Amino acid sequence: MKSSTTTIIKRAVVGGIVSTLFMATGTFIIGETSGYEAKILITSSLSGVNMLCNTVILGSSTILALMLTLLSLSQVCRFFSHQNTLQARTGNCEG
């Protein structure tokens, strides 16, 4: 029990160090930007962010529709399978 806790703590520390180095590298590459430059960058990227959000929503709704379709088909198949089982048991197999 003690070794698993130590392993978890070591992994968390290593993950923190890696993420800190990644953030520091990104900050160094981008450099310092003034408030005005940041406003210009945000304004120019708004259309791209809007398109990204629309794409994520469209993809999520498509996946949801496909999942609901699959769920309804599995329920229909289960219903007909149950009906066929009942017909076979009762001997009423006319259709």
What can you tell me about this protein's structure?
With 95 residues, this protein is mostly helical. The chain has helices at residues 2-30, 35-90. It is flat, with a radius of gyration of 28 Å. It starts with a helix and ends in a 5-residue tail after the last helix.
List keywords for this structure.
95 residues; mainly alpha; 2 helices; 89% helix; flat
Name the helicity range. Answer: over 70%
Number of strands: 0
How many helices? 2
Please tell me what the overall shape is: flat
| Biggest sheet statistics | none
Strand content: under 5%
Q: Give the rounded overall mean pLDDT.
A: 82
Report the structural category.
Answer: mainly alpha
The SSE string, one letter per element, is: HH
Low-confidence region ranges: none
N→C terminal distance: 62 Å
Radius of gyration: 28 Å
How is the topology of this model organized?
Elements: H1 2-30, H2 35-90
Question: What's the short story on this structure?
Answer:
By secondary structure, this protein is mostly helical. It is built from two helices and no strands.
